Amino acid sequence: MHADVMAPPRAASLELRASMSFDEWSGVGRRIARIASGSAWALGEWLLFGERRFGARYRSAIEATDLDYQTLRNYAWVARNVDAPRRRDELSFQHHAEVASLPAPEQDLWLHRAVMHGWSRNELRRRMRADRAADRAVPATVVRVEVSSDVAERWRRAAEAADQELREWVRAVTTAAADATLH
User: Fold this and answer.
1) Is residue 53 predicted with pLDDT exceeding 90?
2) Rounded to whole angstroms, how far apart are CA atoms 24 and 20?
3) How far is Cα 59 from Cα 134, in angstroms, rounded to an integer?
4) Which of 9, 37, 60, 158 is 20 to 30 A from 18 (CA-CA)?
């Protein structure tokens, strides 16, 4: 952050230049939000490392952070369930928390849509709920695709690697490809 816009940050306050413009003020807010989102990722990764490396002893280090245990567990849960290569810098940690319970290809699909359309976390949540409701309300159309046995086996291995049923994996991957092509 720029020294001409704000004083050096302190743990419990933020001093901003009284004469700053709206654009400068907005920029400071965006930078703070990015730092906050990055901090959530860092704390989640830190906790996962501590669990793996130090076992039960990591709890004493958690107490040193003065953060709520459940908050830290949530950070770790999102970090565990959304692999680093899948994360989108353009989106907040909270966007990723919305998709963390989904299989990997569906995470990609929804994160891609959120980036493409500039959705807020709340809009992403709304769209995901609407999609689930539509899936329940509309009868499915069966589409048959003939592929070689080599291709079918490759798809099965990919679905297994994504810990998904083949049908769900194909649905998520083809939907993501259609979205990318149409946008």
Assistant:
1) no
2) 6
3) 43
4) 37
